[in-house]
Design brief:
heterodimer; A: about 130 residues; alpha/beta; Rossmann fold; five-stranded parallel beta sheet; 5 strands; globular; B: about 475 residues; alpha+beta; 434 Repressor (Amino-terminal Domain); Beta-Lactamase; 3 domains; six-stranded mixed beta sheet; flat
Chain lengths: ~130, ~475
Amino acid sequence: MGKHVLLIEDEPNIIEAIRFILARDGWLVHTHSNGASALDALQRHRPDVVILDVMLPDRSGYDILADLRGGRGPAAGLEGLPVLMLTARGQSKERETALRLGADVFMTKPFSNAEMRDAVRLLYERRADAAR
Amino acid sequence: MARSIPVGARLRARRLDLEMTQAELARRLEISPSYLNLIEHDRRRIGGKLLARAADALGTDVASLSRGAAQGLVEALRLAAGMQRGDGREGEPASAGDHERAGPAGARALGGAELEAAEDFASRYPGWAGLVAAQDRRIAALERTAELLSDRLTHDPYLSAAIHDVLSAVTAIRSTAAILADEPDISTEWRTRFHRNLHDDSRRLAEGSQGLVDYLEGEGEAENAGAAPQQELEDWLSGRDYHIEELEPGAGPIEEDRLAARIGALASAREGFVTGAGRALGARWMHRYAADASALPLAPLRASLQAHGGDPGRIAQSLAAPLPLVLRRLACLPEGLAGRPAGLVICDGTGAMILRRPVAGFSVPRFGAACPLWPLYQVLLEPSGAMLRVIEQAGRMPQRFTAYAASQVRRTEGFGGPLVAEAVMLVLPAERGGKDEGAADAPGAIRAGTNCRICPREDCAARREASILGTGGPAA
């Protein structure tokens, strides 16, 4: 079974670019564009790494992250997933909020492809190490 | 009061600064050292040609020796020293806590003895003193800019969405371009798709950037096409000092048709509103103004104002007029209120601003909520309530204002329809010495701010969020 990323993002061309670069590194990339049903998608896919945008239609990425870390109800069993938060707002307050809610990595748009590749690989390896 | 330094002491201080002996200066002035000693201790007067020669010998000018530094410079230094406290509590000794709160630059509050030395400092080192004063003015201007930008970045929904769109387009372009540049073996299908994406995103970026530039440039101009309709209205009203003479009834009421025509002409004038939304909002305010003017014409308002010394409560009582109406009318008097500029803030039941007329020293946020301690909001808690308070606005230069606030609740859509609340606040700069007509019975001053993000008062029970001034707020 391959390494699996779920990208929760609503900008189609950003989705396409991230999907392309990660697929080249051997990742299986699923995407989801809606905030309200993001937890359902996470339950369905159970990815190794989650890339989560903050500004999504219907629901904020922060709220999704808080539910995910809570691990209750529709988020049951998701609390340990590594999460990379993406945002167009790079203020320190945003970073603090993301990290306080339990994001593993906080990345500001625009990012470089190398940054994205490295961050996703790091999260995967960290999780794999913890599982050993 | 500023301590006045005698001319002899100034002369002596200047000589010592230059490390010149008394004997040397006496020789240059062609007087005896003992006589110079008497002058330096102000036991003999000095003036005329001798003072001019002394100034020349000491490399300064007569004015510096005879009058000391310009009083304006001394006042500027005192202001700069006093404002380092952050909360502007004059006359209180600086505590360790004050020092810690004094800001990232490590500036500390200056105590009484150091403040007393301001004139001495300005006399001895006018260049440095001027620099301190200029930097203090610069800091004040930058803080004001930060206040405005913070307000906009936080609360302007258009700006926030526009920046997000631009950054999203930039992100997509950067990633896609990097793929095309760094990945040599892309299939033709993918290459074509990425080229198309680049084209779409670059166009989106160009349009988004242009829109953003138009919006921001418009903000800096009096007539801005990109501004919110409310700003258009406030700009238009500001150009008239918030008084619309054409809508005052004068000798008699204005017929409905003529009133509509006048408002239509005012709203569509070339030099007036820019957007349709601005014109519509302007017309709505003009109708309201005309109704206010009809209900409370200028002549009886002025007569009552003269009789009751500017107390809106008594004016309202004498004219049997609703207090909110009186406050709105007083704020729009062409001559000001007792010669003072009047500020006006109107909000609805949600606290959203309907109209702002700022007055110097009393900023009103354009977006988002203001300070919850303002009587404007307090009075909303009390339907048809009225409130008189002195407000001390926090800032580099805390100023006191007398605020009269009143609320009103209207039932709309007939019996059983929803209630619509509105509050009005008239703001007057408090007169020096605290003698403010109509405010004599005001309770203690409310220590308030503009909004939490730019308010330094960390001990405020109503604080919603941390201040960007780094002086308070809940822990993140």
